[in-house]
Every structure is written in structure tokens, then in C-alpha cells.
Amino acid sequence: MSRSIIITGGAGFIGSHVVRRFVTKYPHYRIINVDKLTYAGNLENIKDIEQAPNYVFEHADICDEERMNEIFSQYKVDGVIHLAAESHVDRSITDPLIFVKTNLIGTANLLHIARKHWSGNFDGKKFHHVSTDEVFGSLEMDYGYFTEETAYDPRSPYSASKAGSDHLVKAFYHTYHMPVVLTNCSNNYGPNHFPEKLIPLMINNIIHMRPLPVYGKGENVRDWLHVKDHARAIDLVFHEGKAGETYNVGGHNEWKNIDLVFFLCDLMDEKLGREQGTSKGLITYVTDRAGHDLRYAIDAGKIEKELGWTPDYTFEQGLSETADWYLSNQEWLDHVTSGEYRKYYEEMYK
Known about the structure:
Number of strands: 12
Order of helices and strands: EHEEHEHHEHEEHEEHEEHEHHHH
Helix content: 40-55%
Radius of gyration: 20 Å
CATH class of the domain at 3-192 and 225-252 and 295-314: Alpha Beta
Distance between the termini: 31 Å
Strand content: 15-25%
CATH topology of the domain at 3-192 and 225-252 and 295-314: Rossmann fold
């Protein structure tokens, strides 16, 4: 194997797509998927590649220094793509400490161990930290964009923990000259998305004719990025990104939450053969989230200009394909919503 690359959080939503891309595109790489298998980690996401000869799964916590040292030593790791994170804003409001532990302490542990193993020879090494646009705070107007130079202004325990991890990554570059790159992405969507997030939650609830909860008046704006476009960007930045640089990754798809829900309602009514307007009757407005940021919007001009990346998916195309995937993978959806998916690995890793 020409390279040994750890991908943390590889059983999660974005991570599984990155793992799949690297395993299939780079058969000469050894890909080590490191995942603690919390509620959002699902090995069913990657069943199709788990027998690949260049794929290895390691059940491990990134906060466990001894275990991560063992993995670095065993596989002679020369690359890290770090996606493992607690990522649900609502959960961070309820239980902020687990976000600090995983997102901040876990990242610090990975950086420390990578530096120790690579010390004195950074040639051919790369640490790619995957982060979020939420570290920049909220755009309170309907114009302007987050750029790589935008000052950090996190508003939730989740975004604050991610901001802290970003600063640690940059500090290791400036202090130790460690070869790091960062990407800050907008909201992802696509297949295998855990159905606590907006799009899969709405799709699942529409299928089962359950209420569609919308925060406040649904005026909050998000920029949506297809997960496969994101995986392609991560691949590009990992291989061609300049050490010490940050690249924003966005989908050029700004939608108000309520407009997105309206669109999904019409789309799902059509796909399910229901009378138009049926699903809109399920919309329920609920009390707004504490500290709910008004608008996120990414300027992805740097990664386009310097590395040639642009999104392939239009939002309408991506949403239609995403809805089709959930409709065609009812067993996966049922396993996730019922908790059945956890039985897939509990016997193996108990």
C-alpha cells in the first residue's frame, strides 16, 4: 500500500461517503476507518465496501490516547482526514460537555499523536480537519458571504467546540509547522443522513404522515451541499490543498427552511402518488431553537479558483435523488429510526 490514511468518523453520514470514495478510487491506499460508533455511527452505511482488501475498520475513540497511538503505530499512518464529531446543534444545547470532549479534546489528541509519530519528518504527511461554516456565526442580512477571512463568531456549544478545534489545528501548523489543511463546509444532504437533521427528518415524516416541525417561522437560511460534492472536495483538498490553508466548501444553494420544506412536500407528494398539498398539511411551527443563526452562506471562490472544484449537483436534482434513495432504502431508514442498526455491531464490539 502506498499510503495509510485514517478517516475518523467513517461510519457517519459524511464520513461514510469519504471512506467509500477513497476505498474505491485509491485501491493502492490502505484506508483505516476509525469510529467510536456513537448513535450517529452506522456500519450499515458502508456494508458495500467492508470486504475491500484496502479497507480496515477500527472501533476506537479519538479521545483514547493509548488506542490511537496503537493504530498510528500498527498502520504507519501518513494521512488523517478528521471528520469524527458531535454535530447536532440541538443536542449540544442539551449536553454541551460531550461536544467539548469529542470535538475539542478529541481533535487535540489526534493532532498530538500525529505530530509525535510524524515528528522530524513531515514529508508526505497531511492532516485534513473537516469543519463547518457555523464557526463564523450568523449572517444577519440577506447579502454577504462567509469567506476564509471571516472572523469566527460561534453561537452554539456545537459551533464553539468546532471553532476551538479549528484554532488548535491552525496552532499546530504555526507552532510545529505540521502539514494541516482545513475545510469549512455548508449544510450537507444526501443518502445515509441520520434522520434527526432537517431533510431526512422531513422525508421520513412525510412518508409516515407525521408532523413536520419547523422552527419559528422557517425564515432561517442555509446553503446546502450534496454530500458527494463534499466528498469530492475533501479528496481534492487532501491531495492538492496547500499546508496551512483553509478552504470553504459550499453548494451555491441558499434556501429558507420553510421554502425547502414546501419543496420537499410537493416533491414527496408527487413521488408517493398523493394529492398535491397533502404533505403541507403536516407542517407544524414550533418554538424557535435557542440562539438560532439566521443565515449561513459560503463563498467557495477560493477552492474553485485554486483547486478547480465546483459542485456538480443542483439542489433540485440532489433533493430528488435523495428522496428516491430514502424511498428505495426503507429498511435502512427503519433500522435507524428504530435503533435496530445498533444491533449490527453491538455483538461484534460489545
